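Example record

One chain of 261 residues, shown exactly as stored in the release files.
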Amino acid sequence: MIDKVVASAEEAVADIPDGASLAVGGFGLCGIPVALIDALHQRGTRNLETVSNNCGVDDWGLGILLKDGRIRRTVSSYVGENKEFARQYLSGELEVVLTPQGTLAEKLRAGGAGIPAFFTSAGVGTQVSEGGLPQKYDADGSIAIASQAKEVRTFNGADYVLEESLTPDFGLVHAWKGDRHGNLMYHATAMNFNPLCAMAGKITIAEVEELVEPGELDPEHIHTPGIFIQRVVLAPAVEKRIEKKTVSAASTSSTSDQAGA
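Predicted structure tokens for this chain:
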């Protein structure tokens, strides 16, 4: 087996060219390959197409690439936490392919499994199947690119829409543990889209919080087999953020009372 470990995140992303397509793991702010995104940002790589559940927030994750105008097109299922994303989309600077979340997950999984397309009931009878969704606006607010209608076929009396799979040029994922052969384990909900992006990328790069030797991971607990991974980089001190903090009124009052005492 080949030792897939590279010395740094910068080295790991060094051959990602301008114009590349990227499948990027994560959900909200959980399980984001921050070290790889930061390294790509520092390189100045631009004109990217991203495939990800969301596009980060304004100052973190994919949001830092978006803020500097490095992303030209994104395939996403949720975009509600990024004001710069909304501004670029509505001003005609960014092409957005909105995709139902389950469909996006299956487009990546099927791509990684070698399945070129599949039928799903999600989106039947809506603009997802009928076309006309604004993917890109002109500067004057008119629609420059609209989604195309998709094939709909009936199976057992129900309609299903044909969706094509995704196989981006590169996959960027974050894992809890990984070995030198590229076998990965994810922690709890940080698994999210990471295994799917790992499968779909033609070349997949994994940043891991802990690097172990081959044989140290229990085979029954491996989530992504090393066959899907081409490079591994150790990223032990990545920042982990909480997307939203909610504090009850009672907790706030209690804290104030204690501070006054």
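Notes: DSSP finds eight helices and 13 strands in the chain.
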